[in-house]
Amino acid sequence: MMVTKGLVIDTPWIDQILAGKKTWEMRSRATSQRGWIGLIRKGSGQVVGLARLDDCGPTLSRHEMLATIDKHGIPERHIADGAGAKWTTPWKFGEVKRLAPPVPYRHKLGAVTWVLLDDLVGMAINRQFEAASPPSSDITSAVALEENDSVQSPSGHSIGQKENAVKSPAPRSPAASSRSTLVGDTELNQTNLDNSHFYMSGFIGRFPANLIGGGNKRDQAPMSAIIDWGGPEPAETDIDGKKQFFRKRAWVKRFFADNDAVPGDKVRVEETAPYAYLVRLIKRGSI
């Protein structure tokens, strides 16, 4: 299976879909798209899940909208007052899978509803999909989408966000995947701990060249890595090629604190998919 298209969905609707609480994505018009698609959190630059788009229903009346709240999640008061009047066509999802970590992609200028995903992104998604559960024989690539679908508006409306917001999961410890590949280990010193960074000079050449930028923020690399560090949300950053550590470091400070890092501990970096990495702390003397 190769997923080639992603659907842009706003928060909190995408969280409800990933949690299995919303099986109908409400849109302003119909679509002929069927099969597996990527789920893109609006504004994140990440494919956060997969969904099998099984069907597209007819436009619903207000009565039908009220009768199917358990499927689409739009609050009753917004149906009654007309705030959700535009979003009355159900795109019906079957199976849904969360991607952990999410897969980064480059958002193309002008893409509003659908995003065409490049081969590297499709490969990264496929690796996670197959690792979770081998695809069955009836899973096929998504069929060609209608030209008109590319310009329709996403579920960007703000109705019901407070009522339907999904809380972030509690912090967790990252675990090595059976499909991960070791990139390298680096030993921590006090300077690393004081400044929330760790040097990767010993293995910087094992990262893709387009992840490595210059020494200034304006010289960021064209691609970003998604970092699973064990926290509630993955980090997204490129690499400062001059200093040879991850450019964005707020997550590193919390990573050190959560793992009680001390000088002599090691940080291990593993690749789990293209542009996706797992960062773990190896305590001194444990290896």
Automatic annotation (TrEMBL):
Write down the Gene3D superfamilies for this protein, in alphabetical order: Hypothetical protein
Question: Taking every annotated instance into account, which residue ranges of this chain make up the domain ASCH?
Answer: 9-62
**Record's compositionally biased regions (Low complexity):** 168-180
Pfam families listed in its UniProt record:
ASCH
Task: Identify the stretch(es) annotated as Disordered.
Answer: 147-185
InterPro entries in the record:
ASCH_domain, PUA-like_sf
Q: Which residues form a coiled coil?
A: none
Q: Could you name the domain of life of the organism this protein comes from? A: Bacteria
Name of this chain's protein: ASCH domain-containing protein
> Native species of this protein?
Rhodoblastus acidophilus (Rhodopseudomonas acidophila)
